[in-house]
Amino acid sequence: MRIFAEMTDMEHEQLVFCHDEVSGLKAIIGIHDTTLGPALGGTRMWDYDTEEEAIRDALRLSRGMTYKSSAMGLNLGGGKGVIIGDPSRDKTEELWRAYGRFVESLGGRYITSVDVGTSPADLDLVAQETEYVGGLAHLSGDPSPVTAYGTYVGMKACMQHLTGSDSLEGCRVAVQGAGSVGYTLCEHLADEGADLMVSDVNTDRVEKVVSDFGATAVAPDDIYEQDCDIFAPCALGAVVNDNTLDRLSCRVVAGAANNQLDRDEHGVQLRKREILYAPDFVINGGGVINVAHEFHPNGYSRDLALRKVESIRDRLLEIFAVSDEEDIATNEAADRVAERRINSMARIQRIRV
Predict the structure, then answer these.
(1) 26, 80, 91, 156: the active-site residue
(2) pTM (2 decimals)?
C-alpha cells in the first residue's frame, strides 16, 4: 500500500498511527482537512482483516466527514479514528484511556465521538484523558434519534422538490434497516401517516416496527423491488450498486446509511432513471450537528441542535437546484456545494493583518 500516494489522492493532511503495547491498542486517526476548523469524526472499532483495510477506512471516512461538516454549515473539518479490534471482546479501560492520550496529543486538531463499535460509555473513558471528545452520555449522548430526525426532514425536502408539497402523508416508504436510526425514522414517518415497508436481517427488529407502526414486513433481498415513493437505506453502505440499481422501483432514494452509492457513477445512473437521490452525507448529517453543539459557547442545547438539523431541508433543496441548473447528479452537486464553502473560507483565511 502506497500510503502517501493515497493521502495525496484524497487530499489528506495527516495520518496518525497509535500503538500501546500494554493495552494492545492499535489505532489510526485520519485528519483530512482543517480549513473550516478542527477535524471532528467518530472512532470506529472493527475487527479488520488487514491493517491496509483499516488505513483505507480511516482515509475514506475522514474525507467524508470534511464534506459532511462543510455541507452542514459547521466550522469543523473532517477526521476519523479507527481501532483494530473486536468490540465485543477487546474493549478495556486501559485501551480507551491509552487512545484518549493519543487524541490529547493532537492538541485539539481532532475531536472524537461515537461510531460503529463504540458507545458513549467508551467515550467517558476517553474523556478521562482528553477534553477533545463529543457525544458524551451526559451531553448529546446517542446521536441516533437526531440522525433519524434529520433524515425525516430530508425526506420532506425531497417531496417538496418533486411535488411542491413536503407532506409525507400517504407516501409509501421502504425502510432498509430497523436499528436505532431506522426505528426512530419509522416513528416519525408513521406519525405523519406514511405507509411503511421494512426489512432487516434481524427479524425481531422488523417485528417491533410491524407491531408498533403497522408496517409491512419485507424480506431483506426483496426491499429493493418494492413499489414505493421513497427507498430509505438505513443499514449498510453501497446498497445502490450494479446488482440493485435496475431493481429499484421508487421515486426517491433517501436514507440514513453512509456511502449508499457503491460508485459515484451510480448517482449519474439514478439521475438518468429520474430517481432523486438525497446525498447521504447531507441527509444523515443530524448526528454530527448534534455532537458539534456540545462545543457551543453557551453549552449544549437539544432544542438548538434540532433547529440546526432542520437546515438539512434547505441544504438539500440548494443541492437539488444546483443539480438541475448544472445538469449533474445530486451526489456531484453536493460535493460542489461542500467544496465551494471550503475553498471560499480558505481564501478568506489568507487575509492577514
Answers:
(1) 80
(2) 0.89
Q: At what angle do helices 330-348 and 311-326 cross, to 10 degrees?
A: 110
Q: Could you tell me where the DSSP H helices lie in the chain? A: 3-10, 51-71, 93-105, 120-126, 144-163, 180-192, 203-213, 265-272, 280-283, 286-292, 302-309, 311-326, 330-348
- Amino acid identity of residue 190, one-letter, is A
Domains of the chain: 3-62+77-126 (3.40.50.10860), 144-286+312-339 (3.40.50.720)
* Residue-wise pLDDT tens digits, 124-154: 999 999 999 998 888 877 788 999 999 999 9
- Distance separating alpha carbons of residues 287 and 40, to the nearest angstrom: 12
80 carries an active-site annotation: yes
Name the packing angle between helices 144-163 and 302-309 (round to 10°): 30
Q: 238: exposed, middle or buried (C-beta count within 10 Å: 0-12, 13-18, 19+)?
A: middle
Sole residue written with cell 449522548: 141
Q: pLDDT for 296-317, tens place per residue? A: 888 888 889 999 999 999 999 9
Cα 132 from Cα 274, distance rounded (Å): 43
Amino acid identity, position 176 = Q
